[in-house]
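Table S2 (continued). Query chain:
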Amino acid sequence: MSQWITLNSRDGTDVVAYVAEPVGPVQGGLVVLQEIFGVNSHIRAVADGWAQEGYWVIAPSTFQRVQVGVELGYSEADMQTGFGLKTAVEALPAPGVMADIQAAIDQAASTSGGKVGIVGYCWGGLLTWRSACQLNGLSAAVPYYGGGMTTEAEMSPQPQCPVMAHFAEQDHWIPLDSVEAFKRRHPGIGVHTYPAHHGFNCDQRGSYDASAAQLALDRTRAFFKALLR
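Corresponding output:
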């Protein structure tokens, strides 16, 4: 079952979020963080898929503070719109969107009654990494090709929960040498690379790679199973 709910961040901001609930027993909570295209049909499908695994899943709109109801596709025009919205969110004074993600974590914990994990893609991957380092209540975090997370400034903090990270070896946004630097900085993190391009997990993008997506999903599934149940 799925529905839209409204979260209330600690500063009083209302944030719309997509919720997918499992049919059977709840195995834990999971926060899914969008790309730069909003909580669109792909992200909702990802949330639904994790709900089928037994998790109570919530995908907050991380664009809410700058624009309501964003749902983009993957055209060049959509890409430019998404980049602009991301830039606007990143320019907000702290804690900005991180407060909204904390609200989603708190909701997942209280509703599921179990441990909470977080997974995010592209910009959502960066936000997932920041969440692992800055926020409370997480037991596992999995960023997928988080743009910016391998820069010196972003990889300096230490995560407060176990992390597994997925990167693409042919990603023109995230140089492979920066991924290697990230691995050296965080030897305790499971870092996996795939012979694919940025966005390989999204079956609505031209860069979709079914074999890489499946392998990353299998690894993520096992990671969450070990840490959230």
